[in-house]
Structures are given as structure tokens and as C-alpha cells.
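User: Please fill in residues for this 168-position structure.
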């Protein structure tokens, strides 16, 4: 019985050793969706938004105009109106696009300088997403040495606090 339990324990350790973090931020920044794109809202329905694709951040090619459905659209997503810009993570099911990891309102159509204004996340997470997009996808790892603070390492390995943006 002890040998069997030992083998079971060793098997569990080897199985768990290959596990990776599976939080939405890890998946969002590591291509675990069909595409992450910057788009401009053209029109909207009760649970869908039509976007003009401005820039593909990561993932597979998208048409110039797509309709994205979000059956779980909350109050934030319903506030998006024509001419607004948003970062959208989508999956493709057959010929339909659905929101995968979230929709985030941004202030411009320039990935290098845009600011993430709001979305279904904390300020710290929104700052991490902004840093990731502004860096062209180079910054993907954000240590959290304290609660509610986000730090990133610059290319010179210097640590910089990203959030909160005020001294709290």
C-alpha cells in the first residue's frame, strides 16, 4: 500500500510540475485567444459590437470589420459608443467572434501611446495591460511585491511602479 501511495504522489508531482498560470492576464498577454486587437466602435446591438479593426496586437488575421458578440456584456461594455476605441480579446467559433478575456476602453488608435481608460479589471491590472500594449508586447511579466501595487522591470532591469498612479 505504501509503494502504491508513493507512486501516486510522484505521478501527481510530475503532472502538476507542467502546470502554468492560467489567470486571464497571463492568457491575454500570451496569445491564448484567437486575437487581441485595437478597434473603433462602428455600431452596437444589445449583446454585440461592430468594430473597424485598427491594429492587430497579437493573434490571427482578422477582417477589416468584425462583429463581436458578448453574451455576458456588463454595464461597462454597454457604455461603448460609435467612434470609441477599445482593446478586444476574441475567440472565433465557426464564423462568429466572441469576447474571450475582455473588452477595454482606450483613448486612441495608437498602440504605442494609448491609455487604457476602463475595463473589467482593477487599476493595477489596467496599468499592466497598458504597459504591455505600449511596449509592443515586450513587457509581459509584472511582479506584485505588495498588495494593489504593480511593478514592471524596464529593459535596463530597473524596477518601476506602475500602479497605483498616486501615492497611496
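Assistant: Residues filled in for all 168 positions:
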Amino acid at each position: 500500500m505504501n509503494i502504491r501511495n508513493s507512486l501516486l504522489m510522484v505521478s501527481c508531482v510530475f503532472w502538476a510540475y507542467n502546470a502554468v498560470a492560467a489567470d486571464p492576464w497571463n492568457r491575454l498577454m500570451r496569445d491564448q485567444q484567437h486575437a487581441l486587437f485595437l478597434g473603433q466602435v462602428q455600431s452596437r446591438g444589445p449583446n454585440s459590437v461592430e468594430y473597424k479593426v485598427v491594429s492587430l496586437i497579437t493573434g490571427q488575421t482578422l477582417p477589416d470589420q468584425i462583429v463581436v458578440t458578448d453574451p455576458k456584456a456588463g454595464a461597462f461594455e454597454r457604455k461603448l459608443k460609435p467612434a470609441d476605441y477599445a482593446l478586444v480579446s476574441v475567440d472565433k467559433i465557426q464564423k462568429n467572434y466572441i469576447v474571450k478575456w475582455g473588452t477595454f476602453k482606450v483613448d486612441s488608435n495608437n498602440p504605442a501611446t494609448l491609455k487604457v481608460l476602463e475595463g473589467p479589471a482593477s487599476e493595477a491590472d489596467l496599468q499592466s495591460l497598458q504597459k504591455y500594449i505600449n511596449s509592443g508586447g515586450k513587457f509581459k511579466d509584472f511582479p506584485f511585491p505588495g498588495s494593489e501595487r504593480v511593478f514592471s522591470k524596464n529593459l535596463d532591469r530597473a524596477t518601476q511602479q506602475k500602479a497605483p498612479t498616486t501615492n497611496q
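For context: The first strand starts at residue 35 and ends at 44.
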